[in-house]
């Protein structure tokens, strides 16, 4: 009788308690977690700058002009006596707006062009891809520079300029994904039972083709912020009391010999954010790729 009870109690033990938990910790995971923390912190700085910044970005203190980094001013002060740490936090707003908005606009327009070209094919594919090929012959920063110079300095114009430079990449990736998926067997099976083409496109092809676009958009976010900061550095960005990261770099380049911190810390913010986004994008690419799972 006791043996039967022991057998029953043994059978009732959950299987997960009998398994040994393995810790899958590696250096790549450490980079991923660190990058995620950095990105979340910068997003929090852009969304809640008043809660994080110790000073107002427009507050000027004549007694602390060009002060070195200290306990009171972590990143030092600029030539107006403004706290550089607070300027970097508030400057993240426009930089993230440029990056996110340009990725969304470029992804939607470029993805739509690539989807039409890849799914319809034929003459439509030839015309659309020749236009994309012409745009791809122009470097992205030069294309954005030309558009921003033609439209004038404003936040909306710089978003359009950066988004236009990203359209060819999204179009090419989406076209290749469409051409690959529309030849799959489940698409042929759906077409064989009389499913309309528009329903096949919306319910079968499109949902299975967005993952490479998501990876490209994640990595493109860092590139968009780099291009937007470069345009602001050249004086084609927004003209506001609170400059973005690129404008902060431009304002501090004349004081590198006497106040290196004015340009150094905005540059570090750009570098950390772009590097963290690229690490997250590489991890997403590996997770979506069945060959590396």
Account of the 3D structure:
This protein is mainly alpha-helical and 293 residues long. It has one domain (37-47, 78-288): MetI-like fold. The chain has 13 helices and no strands. Helix 3 crosses helix 5, helix 5 (84-120) runs antiparallel to helix 6 (122-136) and helix 5 (84-120) packs parallel to helix 8 (155-181). The protein is elongated, with a radius of gyration of 26 Å.
What key phrases describe this protein's structure?
293 residues, mainly alpha, 0% strand
Topology record:
Layout: H1 2-12, H2 15-18, H3 27-47, H4 49-52, H5 84-120, H6 122-136, H7 140-151, H8 155-181, H9 185-192, H10 197-205, H11 211-233, H12 245-252, H13 261-288
Helix pairs in contact: 3-5, 3-13, 5-6, 5-8, 5-11, 6-8, 7-8, 8-11, 9-10, 11-12, 11-13, 12-13
Determine the CATH superfamily: MetI-like
Radius of gyration: 26 Å
Secondary structure category = mainly alpha
| Terminal Cα span | 49 Å
Task: Just name the CATH architecture.
Answer: Orthogonal Bundle
What order do the SSEs take from the amino end to the carboxyl end, as H and E? HHHHHHHHHHHHH
**Percentage beta strand:** under 5%
Helix proportion of residues, in percent? over 70%
Question: What best-fitting shape do the alpha-carbon axes yield?
Answer: elongated
CATH topology call: MetI-like fold
Largest sheet: none
What would CATH call the class?
Mainly Alpha
Total domain count: 1
Membrane topology: Multi-pass membrane protein
Domain ABC transmembrane type-1: 92-281
Family: Belongs to the binding-protein-dependent transport system permease family.
Transmembrane segments: 30-52, 96-120, 127-149, 155-174, 213-239, 259-281
């Amino acid at each position: 009788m006791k043996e039967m009870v022991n057998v029953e109690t043994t059978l009732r033990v959950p299987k997960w308690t009998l398994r040994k938990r393995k810790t899958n910790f590696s250096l790549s995971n450490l980079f991923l977690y660190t990058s995620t923390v950095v990105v979340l912190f910068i997003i929090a700085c852009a969304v809640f700058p008043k809660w994080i910044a110790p000073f107002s970005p427009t507050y000027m203190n004549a007694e602390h002009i060009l002060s070195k980094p200290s306990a009171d001013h972590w990143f030092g002060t600029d030539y107006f006596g403004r706290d550089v740490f607070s300027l970097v936090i508030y400057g993240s707003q426009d930089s993230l707006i440029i990056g996110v908005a340009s990725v969304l606009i470029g992804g939607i327009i470029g993805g739509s062009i690539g989807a039409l070209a890849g799914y319809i094919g034929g003459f439509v594919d030839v015309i659309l891809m020749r236009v994309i090929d012409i745009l791809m012959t122009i470097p992205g920063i030069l294309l954005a520079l030309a558009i921003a110079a033609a439209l004038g300095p404003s936040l909306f114009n710089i978003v359009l300029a950066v988004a236009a430079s990203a359209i060819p990449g999204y179009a090419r990736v989406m076209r290749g994904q469409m051409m690959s998926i529309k030849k799959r067997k489940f698409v042929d099976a759906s077409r064989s039972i009389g499913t309309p083409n528009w329903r096949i496109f919306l319910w079968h092809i499109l949902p299975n083709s967005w993952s490479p676009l998501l990876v490209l958009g994640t990595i493109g976010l860092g590139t968009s912020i780099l291009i937007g900061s470069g345009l602001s550095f050249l004086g084609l960005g927004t003209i506001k009391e609170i400059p973005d990261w690129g404008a902060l770099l431009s304002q501090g380049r004349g004081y590198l010999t006497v106040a290196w911190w004015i340009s150094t810390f905005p540059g570090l913010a750009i570098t950390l954010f772009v590097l963290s986004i690229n690490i997250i994008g590489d991890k997403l690419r590996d997770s979506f790729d069945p060959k590396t799972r």
